[in-house]
Design goal:
- This protein is of the alpha/beta class.
- The chain has eleven helices and 14 strands.
- The strands form two sheets. The protein has a ten-stranded mixed sheet with strand order 6-5-4-3-7-1-8-9-2-10, sandwiched between helices. Strands 11-12-13-14 form a four-stranded antiparallel sheet, covered by helices on one side.
- Helix 5 runs parallel beside helix 7.
- The protein is globular, with a radius of gyration of 21 Å.
- Bound molecules: calcium ion (CA).
- Calcium ion binds next to loops.
Length: 500
């Protein structure tokens, strides 16, 4: 096993991060060497999809030929992690290349003050735009607050910065977390300095696919950056009749059939986008990543986010720091650059997308990567480096509880946080903790993921030294992070109480 943790490196990284809180420096003095032609960059992102629900990751009852082809032509990562098991902090990590805990965010965001630090961050779109990329976010944003309500000319219910103030030239889609999928649902568009609200002319997932193809067609001379963030298969379970009818499996529940239809629609539109790249001769010069934002909602998540997703072979679901909440499918595709049909088993993070894309675009000098938590994947993909990309990853997630579900007290602090650390084959978890201090009613659990991917066999009593090592490493990481920035009481919010 590789060494666990370098405290010296961690301290050094901390010092750098404190001096560069605003993220990546974009000084004009930075000499940038352009490659010719610069690659187009595509993120295909899904929402609450189950880890085991696409064929390339062991899916059985939902045909996903286009995602499977993406994996067959690219590299499939088997130990990829999101930075948080819920939408907003997950997307913060993707767009910034940094842990959302650095922004004091450990849950979804419900108020402007919770976004204070995040709004100072350089985004991937900022970096690429300065390098001459045309950047579009099509689909779900969910980084301007938690509401899809539109007030005045604002793209969302809060006065947070919308996508076009975070580096994107174009945006069309939904601003909040949860949205209907049917034709006629309300959407927002910003393009060329104009803003409009309109009703979707099509089933939402197909409309986003259409918009993506049209963007690529318009920008075919490149370079472009497209962040295509499907809100499927997040609840509500709105699957087209024809997609439901196309699911051959007989022994699935009516809800699972609707979910399967939503995944099939995502897959169809991934196929349309990849076909468009091939049609325009852009496939060889486009770096694509496919990933899911957090674990599938499964059958146990809160009612409004339950979607029957299957995270097999992992236990847990969205909201959890168990593998079912944080391990995600992750595919990298770049013909001629990324080996085809191979699996990569080392630990990677969705924060790695930022430096991987920025470096591919020659938009990030080596010195600028020190502020990031993410690491460029290409040296690993090309075999120049080996092993885990991240020796250690940590999570701290506010516990999602319904009102009155728990009586506050030492055993159940409110708010409570679930803690987790992965290092090599090991994963340690401690549930229901206050942000600072310890709830001694909950001990650290320890799992050997190489033998027990479902985290069923707690080995903490057998390996106390490993528990000590991992727990100490976790708290070193935690001490780097700002304290949580609390949302105001629900009565003081400008919009209705949010849903994740
Ligand atoms: Ca999500």
């Amino acid at each position: 096993m590789r060494p666990l943790f370098s405290f010296a490196i961690l301290v050094a990284a901390f010092a750098v991060s404190q001096t560069l809180l605003s993220g990546v420096s974009l000084g004009a003095e930075q000499a940038r060497v352009s490659v010719s032609p610069p690659p187009n960059l595509l993120i295909l992102f899904t929402d609450d999809m189950g880890y085991g629900d696409i064929g390339a990751y062991g899916g059985r009852d939902i045909p996903t030929p286009h995602l499977d082809r993406l994996a067959a032509e690219g590299m499939r990562f088997t130990s990829a992690y999101t930075v948080a098991p819920i939408c907003v902090p997950s997307r913060m990590g993707l767009m910034s290349g940094r842990f959302p805990a650095r922004f004091g965010v450990f849950d979804n965001v419900y108020s402007p003050q919770q976004n204070q630090i995040w709004l100072q961050q350089t985004t991937l779109a900022d970096v690429l735009k300065k390098q001459g990329y045309r950047a579009a976010n099509i689909g779900k944003w969910h980084l301007s607050g938690n509401s899809s309500a539109h007030s005045g000319n604002e793209l969302g219910g809060f006065l947070f910065k919308p996508p076009h103030e975070r580096g994107f030239d174009e945006f069309v889609g939904i601003t909040g977390g949860m949205h209907t999928f049917w034709k006629g649902t309300g959407l927002a568009r910003f393009k060329d300095g104009t803003y409009e609200r309109f009703n979707s002319p099509d089933y939402l997932t197909d409309f986003f696919g259409t918009e993506a193809c049209e963007f690529i067609q318009r920008q075919k001379d490149g370079p472009w950056f497209l962040y295509l963030a499907f809100n499927a298969p997040h609840a509500p379970l709105h699957g087209l009749d024809e997609d439901q009818a196309a699911i051959d499996a007989k022994d699935i529940s009516p809800d699972r059939r609707k979910y399967a239809a939503m995944v099939r629609a995502v897959d169809r539109n991934v196929g349309r986008v990849m076909d468009k790249l091939r049609e325009l001769g852009l496939a060889e010069n486009t770096l694509t990543v496919f990933a899911n934002d957090n674990g599938g909602g499964g059958n146990n998540a809160s009612e409004h986010t339950r979607n029957t997703a299957i995270n097999r072979p992992h236990r847990g679901h969205k909201f959890d720091v168990l593998e079912g909440g944080v391990r995600v499918p992750f595919i990298l595709h770049w013909p001629g650059q990324v080996p085809a049909g191979k699996a990569f088993d080392g630990i990677v993070s969705t924060t790695d997308v930022f430096p991987t894309f920025a470096k591919a675009a020659s938009a990030l000098a080596e010195s600028e990567t020190t502020t990031l938590d993410g690491i460029d994947l290409m040296p690993f993909v090309k075999g120049e480096k080996s092993g885990h990309v991240h020796e250690t990853l940590c999570w701290q997630q506010r516990v999602w509880t319904r009102p009155n579900e728990r009586k506050p007290g030492p055993a159940y602090p409110v708010p409570a946080y679930n803690l987790a650390i992965r290092s090599g084959q090991w994963k340690a978890i401690k549930l229901d903790q206050p942000f600072e201090g310890t709830n001694h009613g909950r001990a650290w659990e320890l799992y050997d993921l190489s033998q027990d991917p479902a985290e069923l066999n707690d080995l903490a009593t057998e390996f106390p030294d490993k528990v000590k090592e991992l727990s100490e490493a976790f708290f070193v990481w935690q001490k780097q992070m700002p304290k949580p920035i609390a949302a105001p009481a629900a009565s003081n919010r400008k919009v209705a109480p949010p849903k994740p």
